[in-house]
Amino acid sequence: MQNDTYFAKLVSLGCHDVRTPLATVHGFTKTLERGSDLAPPADRYVEMIGKASAEMAELLDELSLAARIESGSYEPALRDADTLALAEAARERLGEDRVSVSGEGAVIATDVEAVDRGVSALIQAALRHGGLTEVSVAVRGPVIEVAPVTAASSAVVLGRELRDLGAAVAVRVIERLGGAVTVDGDTLTISFP
Question: In this predicted structure, what is the pLDDT of residue 13?
Answer without folding.
Answer: 85
